[in-house]
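[Automated response] Your request has been received and processed.

Submitted sequence:
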Amino acid sequence: MTQTETHQQQRQFLMPDAGEGLTEGEVLRWLVAEGDAVGVNQPLVEIETAKAAIELPSPYAGTVHTLHGAEGDVIEVGQPLVTLLVDAPAGSADAAGSPAPTAVAEPVAEGSGPVLVGYGVTPSTTKRRPRLPASSPHGTQRPEAGPPGEAVKPVRHGGLEIGRAAEARLGGGTDEVSARPRAKPPVRKLARELGIDLAAVRPSGADGVVTRDDVEAAAALVRPLPLAPRGDSREPVRSVTRLMAEAMTNSAFTIPHVTEWLEVDVTRSVELLDRLRRSSTFEGVRVTPMLLVARAVLSGLVRTPVANSWFDTAAGEIVHRGSVNLGFAAATPRGLVVPNIKSADQLTLRELADALAALTATAKEGRTTPADLAGGSFTITNVGVFGVDGGTPIINPGEAAILAVGAWREKPWVHRGQISVRTVCTLALSFDHRFIDGATGARLLVDIAAMLEEPAADLTW
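Generated structure:
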C-alpha cells in the first residue's frame, strides 16, 4: 500500500473498567509521550484502581497524539485516556470523516469474568465464544498480536482482561496484586500526601476497602502536635511538688523496692458494692471500689503486720506500729497528696466510707491539713481511676509497703471451669525488701486478693 492510499485517523482509548464496578482509575505513570510511535500491545500507562495497579497496552500501532491527564489525575471509566493516530485505508468510512471508533477487544465467554469495557465491549453487544483451553501457565491460550490496526485479544489475569504486556508486567501471578490494600485512587493519593502506609491502616469500608476517614484517622495518630510557639520558661518547685520530689527521691534511693503483681476476679466485690449502695446504712455516702480495697488491705495486715512497720535506719530497728494509719494517694490541683485515715483498722465499714469521702473532698479542695498527711503506715494508690491497669509504686518514706490498684474491667475469665465475662483488676504490691522477703509480700498480696474475690458476707457495717 502506497502513502497515497492510507490516511491517519484518530482513535481514542478510553479508561477501561477493570471489573467489579470500579468507576475510576488514577494515572500513576505515563510510559509514553505525545509523538511517540507505539506498537500493538506496547504498554501506554500504569494506572491504579481500588483493586490493583496494572499497565494498559496499546490496542493499535500508531502515534501517540494526546495524553488525557497528568500523573496523579483521576480519570473516570469511559473517559478518554489516550488518543492515537493510526493508519486507515483510503476510501474507508474512517477516512471519510466518520466518528473514530474506540479500541475494541474480543469478548470472552459468559461467566469468565469482567472485561475492559474501555475497549468498546458492553454486556448488550458481547459476542459469546467458547472458553479457551488452559494451554498456558495462566489458564488461557495467549493470542498472537495481529497486524497494525486490528483489535487485540486480551488474556486473563486474576479475573481481569488485560493485554499481554501488562500480564507479563504482573509476572504471571496474582499474589502481589491481591496483597495490596484496597482503596480508591483519591484515597491512595491522600495517603501518599500524608505519608500513611495503606497496608498499616485498618479498613472500615465494605469488603475491606480503606476509606478517606480511615486514612485521616491514621494520620491523626501520627501527626505531630507542636506546642504553641513560645520560649522556654522556668517554674520554681514549691510546696507539694517539692515535698513529693524529696520524699520519692529519698525512698527510691534508700529503700530496695520489690514489686509483685496479681490479677484478681473482683466480680463479687462489684456485686457487694451494689448491695451496699442500696442499703440504708450507706445512704448519703459515696461507695466506691476503694472502700472494699481499703477493707481488704486492713484484713490482710492482720495476718502480715510486718507490712505495717517501718525500718528505722538510724536506730537499726524495725518499728512495729500498734494501729494502721491507712493512706491513699490523691491527685489534686496542687499535686499529689497522701492523706491517711488514722486508726483505720478500728473503724466499721460505714465509718471507713465516711473517712474516705471526707479526706477525698478536702484533698480536691486543697484543704488537706498537715495532720492528715503525717503518720501514715500503709498506702493505697488507685491508678485505675485514670484507666491504667497497673504500675510499680514507690513506697512512702516511713512505711514498708504500698498497693497500686488497676482499673476494674470486664474481660473473659475462667470461672468454675468455664470461660465467662468477669470483672478483673490488677494489684501491684511494692515492699521494702530490707526486712520483708518475697514470700511475706506474696502472702499479703494473696490475702488482699482473696478478700476482693470473696468478700465476706458477715460484714460489720
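Summary generated for your ticket: The chain has three domains: 3-180, 181-222, 239-453. DSSP finds ten helices and 23 strands in the chain.
If you did not submit this request, please reply to this message.
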